[in-house]
Amino acid sequence: MKIAQITPLYEAVPPKLYGGTERVVAWLTDALVDAGHDVTLFASAEAQTRAELVSVRDQAIRLDPAELKSDLAAHMGMLHEVRQRMDEFDVLHFHVDMIHFPFFEDCAAHTLTTLHGRLDLKDLPVVYRRWHQFPLASISQDQRRPLRNSNWIGTVHHGLPADLLPFNPNPCGSYLAFLGRISPEKRVDRAIAIARRVGMPLKIAAKVDGADKAYYEREIAPLLRGSHDVEFVGEIGDAQKPEFLGNAAALLFPIDWPEPFGIVMIEAMACGTPVVAWRCGSVPEVIDEGVTGRIVDNEGDAVAAVRAVMRYDRAGIRATFERRFTAQVMAERYARLYAQLARSRAQDLGLRMA
């Protein structure tokens, strides 16, 4: 099939440091190419891809040093380019929330939109009722809850390349890991408390967004000052993750929000590292309880879970990752949705011509 992948422009594809959606688009695009599809990626110029690249901005927005920039203008320009070339493709796969809806409503059946974020926001139901004709894919079943009656045609869990994060059967670190963002909903404060109750060091590899800087200074920095048991590593990229995650005794994922997926959980699994995660959002869909980790509801249970998961079979964790969460598995599932859309369009065309 001829497939267009349309990514957000906030991060490079894949991101140089922290970043979720653009990272998934990179993995999906390359896996589709490897499966024999003809894929075109609409992204910023520094994208690393095996697909044909259509460069729509000189670099991704977040790390662009320009003082004044418009993310809306950047995305509008990209959508114009996609619209100009849309007839070249069997399917246009959008990853930019709903911004394309008004521009492609006359050809919605030609599109698939994967929603990557939380959907419990005040204004969203009106949008998804107004443009109900757009086929949607969720990244977990739980993500759908606020918009149950939208035009969902499938759920595809994220997957990452099988060789991106190597399996580590013998971790040399006796520490717990936290990887993600410093923000109220990610609850790094819980991770610190759990590690201290277990009596193990904690390493925190995390991004501090400008919007969360005050929270970090007020709530988290005091927990780190003078501490010898908690190390703040800062923001890391894919190159540092094998060592960081692979040598950890366990990953702590103590979220306090409806996480749509949680890539870091499968990144840990790829290394063979077990996960202790809060029962929120997609967590029960991603964690195989008693195999790849434990799902907990409070700090006390998390302390007990950390002690338990350190005895888990790391080879079994890696095997579960390979079965459920590789980029190849993700690409196969999306290819089935593309084929489903193509069949529906062919049937509609046949009915119109009859």
Helix content: 25-40%
Q: Could you tell me the number of beta strands?
A: 13
Broad shape: globular
Instruction: Report how far the terminal alpha carbons are from each other.
Output: 26 Å
What strand order characterises the main sheet? 3-2-1-4-5-6-7
Low-confidence regions:
none
Biggest beta sheet summary: 7 strands, parallel
Q: Number of helix segments?
A: 12
Give the CATH class of the largest domain. Answer: Alpha Beta
Q: How many separate domains make up the residues?
A: 2
Radius of gyration: 21 Å
N-to-C series of helices and strands: EHEEHEHEHEEEHEHEHEHEHEHHH
How is the CATH topology of the largest domain named? Rossmann fold
What is the correct CATH architecture of the largest domain? 3-Layer(aba) Sandwich
Keywords: Transferase
Domain Glycosyl transferase family: 175-310
GO molecular function: glycosyltransferase activity
Organism: Lysobacter dokdonensis DS-58
